[in-house]
Amino acid sequence: MKKTILIACLGLVSLGLQAQSISLAGEWNVELGKSGSAFAKSKRASQGEVKRAILPGTIDTNHLGFAPKDTMETTHLTRLYAYKGAARYSRTINIPKDWKKKPVELFLERTRPTWVYVDGELVDSCNFISTPQRYLLPKKVKPGKHLLEIVVDNGRGVPDQVYGSSHAYTEDTQTNWNGIIGEIRLEVKSEERGVKKQRSVSEGKANSNVLPDFAKDFHIEGTHFYANGHRIFLRGKHDAAVWPLTGHVEMSVEGWMKYLGTCKEYGINHVRFHSWCPPEAAFVAADSLGIYLQPELPFWGSFDKKDERLMAFLHQEGENILREYGHHPSFRMMALGNELWGDIDKMKEFVDDFRKIAPDKYYTFGSNYYLGYQGIKEGMDYFTTCRIGGEGWGKYNTHTRGSFSFADAYDGGMINHFHPNSTMNFDEACDKAGIPIISHETGEFQTYPDYREMKKYTGVLHPYNFEVFRRRLAAAGMLSQADDFHKASGLWSVKLYKADIEMDLRTRNMAGFQLLDIQDYPGQGSAFVGILDAFMESKGITTPEEWRQWCSPVVPLLEVEKFCFEDGEKIQAKVKVANYGGSSLYGKKLKWKIGDAEGVMNIFTYDEGLIDVGVLDEEISADKPTKLNVSLNIEETEARNSYELWVYPKKAMEKKGVIIAKDLNDEVVKVLEKGGKVLWMPTASSHFVAADDTLSQVDNATPYTVGGLFQTDYWNYRMFKTICENNKKKVSPGTLGILTNPEHPIFKGFPTEMHTNWQWFPVIKESHPLVLDNFAKDYRPIVQVIDNIERNHKLGLVMEWKVGAGKLLVCMSNLEKAARYPEGKAFYQSVIDYMRSADFNPSAEITVDKLKKKLAEKPRQVSLKELNNISQY
To answer: Has residue 19 got a pLDDT over 60?
Structure first.
């Protein structure tokens, strides 16, 4: 057979000509475990068990794979019909008579490595995974019936590293499916189009008069992106190919319009595709909706120039992506992969090569390559990163996002470490950059899962992870609290995301952010970090209208050094606006309101970007502890934002009537036995032991505790516990905020919601929550700390019991230290006032001996297997 031509996944432009085509969608024969041609070996259509499959589709969607052996999987969703290996798809095709002597092409829009046979003879093979595969059928294939066989193998054909380190393949999200998805067709190639013609990225420019306005003249000036002469800010999300019903990426324009439409509803104008590239439909939808896309090469790991096979594969994928999708106005940026390490010169070589193919794009090395430690290098047009260059442990001057794991930044980053404020930004890092900086994977704040979501999984993936976590919670006696855990942690995570995003907006030379995420990530240990679930549907913790307050083209900002005040203090806050709306705000009025006080500021600047509007200089007064709402609203626009402040009366602490103890010694026990009231605040010390699989024997009177974590745990406790221990770093306390009843009388002097808010900072940072696993199953602390899904400990911050004739309140926070701040002092006084009132009447009873015994008992141990992250080189 003469050597045939495989059209190497090079895009073809229609140029207004309609090609003749035959869809091959429908029923196919499929044989699992079969490679090569059945026809060639036996002249029969089959040599094994023949099943039927509907294509486009996969072995999973056709329910032809194998049932899971492990129903205890917690690191990702579980495939109900998994299959890895070769599968031979076959059917009879009928070449029309009028196609005689015309070049006929087989088009496979998206698949795995394939080998194509016609009437038993190999046509060619192809391993393109980011773009369509196109095969030119041999000239001797005459009109009439022929046997077409396509062997698809999801177990070979690409470098080994790609299987576990690309969202094109990984089981964490899209799954390593076997099949053919998208369009499958035969078509005649007209002479005008030619069988070798490549799509040039410049062809998109040729029709620029029909391009959406958002993408015209997209360019970089200094540290910012511009479009159509106006500065823009990329409000991005990370995309990891999470499609729980199919286990594979959506291929229809309608599906992508829904997905990207939801993004736009939440103010998102940019999507970064983590270690994969979406199909044509995504670009078409993004073009229509005005959303900028950043695809990446399908890789996450070591960019090793010595690995010639890997380098050749990735280079070809990059060329394919640019030539196939480069004409789309939404495709403006490209990265070499996620969190790469390895040869930096080789990265530059790739970028230089790609720039020759598509000079209208902007390029960076791997998103957050070397975790940001290597800084900016020649050849990078922009830098997506969490930090700019190295740093001293405990310093934050290179950071470009507010939250980190405890493995990657001291105390989990700026938001968890510093006293709450709305002045922090990343000027120190970004001012030195000289090119646009995009904050990498901003947020990653966990929410406790919503087990009601389980009923949504009606497709090929099953939430065994949810089931395991739910059983653990039930075994811990807290299943009845699941919905409250979800709500409280979720509402707190929204406030944390707001804080992180606004830090970006307050940075004059920052160009954008890429959240992780507004969507849950069901893999890598199960990371419920979204404000939406894995289906891009609401969790009930925020609304698009609320979210757009701080995620919009124009955002009013209040810069205030603290959120908690004493009566008579002045709030001296700067009012600014992040103006990336494409027009001047000159002459607009910004209306502000704090409680009953209100006023108007005039905007007198034509500038874009971060602009100064004025200063709020108002005295705050309150005769009782009060939460105030601050609202900012630019009249005649949709731009608005709001903040919360707390005001407490200024007065000396009054502690009479309550015994305050650090130890539960004989003297304190006597007070309780005589009917006294005792506030016990155990002192944190080195012999307080975290209640996980590192437990050790301690003094019989010493309680088991975890550390005090203000923000919700980062990404996934199990994975970063592994990383911290392997890197000899302190492990995160791993908690997800507090749960309490705002109507409880203990809060009469300390207004609160059911969840953590900024006024809780000094109390929580000085805390070491008590593990209550050994206490009564139905016992609930006054202030409960929500534990992560891996441990599910019952944790108490504030608890009470009747002890003999007396009453005991236990607070696992050093309130003497917390009282250095107005809010800490207010909480301390509110606790004392409650204990002195008739409201202090604990319903749970315990003896001193039993209390000491329970405190001394080792809590339920949780053994966590290691869960490593690819990026931790």
So the answer is: no
Contacts of 85 (CB under 8 A, 6+ apart): 32, 33, 153, 154, 155, 178
In 3D space, the residue among 844, 833, 735, 721 whose CA is nearest the CA of residue 793 turns out to be 735
Residue type, 575: V
pLDDT tens per residue, range 627-669: 999 999 999 999 999 999 999 999 999 999 999 999 888 999 9
Residue type, 737: G
Under 8 Å between Cβ of 241 and 174:
yes
What is the rounded distance in angstroms from the CA atom of residue 809 to the CA atom of residue 831?
Answer: 9
CB atoms within 10 A of CB 176: 22
Q: How far apart are CA 782 and CA 746, in angstroms?
A: 9
Helix (H) or strand (E) holding 180: strand 179-188
- Average pLDDT over all residues of the chain: 91
| Dihedral angle of Cα 330, 333, 336, 342, to the nearest 10 degrees | -160
Rounded to whole angstroms, the Cα distance separating 574 from 321 reads 46
What amino acid occupies position 728? Answer: K
The pLDDT tens digits for 768-814 are 999 999 999 999 999 999 999 999 999 999 999 999 899 999 999 99
Contacts of 309 (CB under 8 A, 6+ apart): 159
Distance from first CA to last CA of the chain, Å, rounded? 48
Please, what's the b/e burial string for 18-38 (b: 16 or more CB within 10 A of its CB; e: otherwise)? eeeeeebeeebbbbbebebbb
Question: Burial letters for 772-785: b for 16+ Cβ neighbours within 10 Å, e otherwise?
Answer: bbebeeeebbbbbb
Q: Measured between alpha carbons, how far is 613 from 119 in angstroms, rounded to an integer? A: 74
- Look at residue 424 and give its three-state secondary structure: coil
Res. 18 pLDDT band, cuts 50 70 90: very low
- pTM confidence score: 0.94
| Per-residue pLDDT tens over the stretch 682-696 | 986 544 445 454 433
CA distances from 534 to 124, 300, 454, 843 (A): 38, 22, 11, 41
Neighbours of 266 (CB within 10 A): 22
Q: Which pair of structure tokens corresponds to residue 736?
A: 């997800």
> What is the distance between the alpha carbons of residues 59 and 30, in angstroms, rounded to a whole number?
9
Helix axes 344-357, 308-325, angle to 10 degrees: 30
For 272, the token pair is 């970064």
The neighbour count for residue 528, using CB atoms within 10 Å, is: 29
Contact yes or no for 203/25 (Cβ under 8 A): no
E strand or H helix at 780: none
Rounded to whole angstroms, what are the CA distances from 481 to 476, 710, 823?
11, 21, 28
Which residues are 513's β-sheet partners?
235, 439
Q: Which parts of 691-782 fold into alpha helices (H)?
A: 717-726, 761-765
Peptide bond into 56 cis (omega under 30): yes
pLDDT of residue 618: 93
How far is the C-alpha of 673 from the C-alpha of 614, rounded, in Å? 60
Ramachandran category for residue 756: left, alpha or beta (phi over 0 → left; psi -120 to 50 → alpha): beta
CB neighbours (10 Å) of residue 707? 18
Residue 578 near residue 507, CB atoms below 8 Å: no
The reported pLDDT for the residue numbered 867 is 84
Instruction: Give residue for tokens 């394919």.
Output: 320
d(CA 359, CA 202): 9
Indicate the SS3 state at residue 636: coil
Report the alpha-carbon distance of residue 256 to residue 240 in Å, rounded. 14
* pLDDT band of 40, cuts 50, 70, 90: low
- Predicted pLDDT at 173: 95
pLDDT for the residue numbered 44? 47
CA distance 371 to 366: 10
CA distances from 627 to 52, 559, 707, 748 (A): 64, 18, 28, 12
Could you tell me which residues are beta bridge partners of residue 334? 363
With both helix axes pointing from N to C terminus, report the angle between 666-673 and 848-856 in degrees, rounded to the nearest 10.
Answer: 140
Dist. CA 153–CA 178, nearest whole Å: 7
